[in-house]
Structures are given as C-alpha cells and as structure tokens.
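Task card 7
Instruction: Convert sequence to structure tokens.
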Amino acid sequence: MKISMVLFMLGMFVSTANLHAAETLLEKSEAQKNEVKRDANKAINRIDEETCTGTDTECAKKKLGHRAEEAKDAIKDTSSEVKNKID
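Output:
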C-alpha cells in the first residue's frame, strides 16, 4: 500500500513537472532584440545626459525621465518574457 502511494505521488510529480513550455526560437530572438534595443536606448540616454547644457534642475529632470523610461521598458519586456516562458 505504501509503495503504491509513493509511486502514485512520484507519477503525479513527474507529470506536472513537464507542464511548462519552453520558449520558442522566435520568442528567444524577440527577447534578445528587446535587450539590444534597451541597451542602445540606455547608451543614447547616457550620452544625452552627459551633454546636457541646461541648468542642473533641467538636467536632473531629464535624467530622472530617462531612468523612468528605462525601468518601464525593462518591466514591460521582462513581463513579456515571463509570459512567453509560461505559455
């Protein structure tokens, strides 16, 4: 009885462990494309911040806007990648 219960539990564990789907090649390439795009935008933002000729307040405001935009893009892309891994 105990052995059959253990085998049943092991079978349930193994069958549920394989339910997640792997990312497709298209989804992986899209994730890579998003990462390259974020890195390029980040580099452009850093150059823009270094060459800021406005007042300190204006430059800080621009810098804060860039960081917020970068965080928003990263969250959006990460949530899309997680969704693709689950699907």
